[in-house]
Amino acid sequence: MDITAQASSIGSLADETRRALYEYVARQTEPVSRDAAAEAIGIPAHMARFHLDKLVEAGLLETEFRRLSGRTGPGAGRPSKLYLRASGTISVSLPERRYDLVGHLLAGAIERAAEGADLDRAVADVAHDEGLQITASAPRPAEPAADLDRVSAVLAAQGFEPHEEDGALMLANCPFDSLARDHTALVCSANLSLIGGILEGMDCTHLQAHGEPHVGQCCVAIRPEA
Q1: Helix and strand tally (H, E) in the chain?
Q2: β-strands 61-66, 162-165 pairing
Q3: CATH T-level topology, domain 3-85
Q4: Are 99 and 179 in contact (CB under 8 A)?
Q5: How confident is the model over 141-173, as pLDDT tens digits?
Q6: Which of 143, 194, 203, 205 sits a CA distance of 20 to 30 A from 87?
Q7: First-last CA distance in the chain
Q8: Cβ distance 67 to 76 under 8 Å?
Q9: Are 200 and 130 in contact (CB under 8 A)?
Q10: Are 83 and 31 in contact (CB under 8 A)?
Q11: Which fold has domain 99-224?
């Protein structure tokens, strides 16, 4: 889900009634019916249905259908539409942060180190492999594009805010900001390997990821091979 969709989902909770319904459903351990939700916050059932369905459209709730009587077969009645909190996570961070990604990288590296691998090597290998995976799942451009433009599109999707500067690709945002400040060597090394994997996966081996720390920006710059 991109930032526009995430912001729209969160914006759905600005309505007081809708927010109360969401909070009620989210607290329940089992899916709830429209009537139960309406009674819980003291509104008519038709109003509850409207707001609940809007929350489903926004990706904040999910639905399932079940016969509440417990009976099956002819005469058991129609299944009821039930609401439950969506299983996904919605968050908005400006500038974008990807602590989920760096956490995934470091967890994978720790698992390899526990099996006897050198930790620094494990971090580099896991991050590089993740870069390859990112490019494998990245959408292909509809028309041929310059390599810097292709790489820029993939890095933008990961939150790096790339921009071209004197023939190089500079990254205005570090998606791993607070972790990079507290654990600079570890996180920046992983980042360098991640972007190196992205370049390899895009068959842009004439471009090189270089560690070039700048205050308030990503520590990596991408330049043509000298």
Answers
A1: 9, 7
A2: unpaired
A3: Arc Repressor Mutant, subunit A (1.10.10)
A4: yes
A5: 766 668 899 999 999 999 999 999 998 999 999
A6: 194
A7: 38
A8: yes
A9: no
A10: yes
A11: Muramoyl-pentapeptide Carboxypeptidase; domain 2 (3.30.1380)
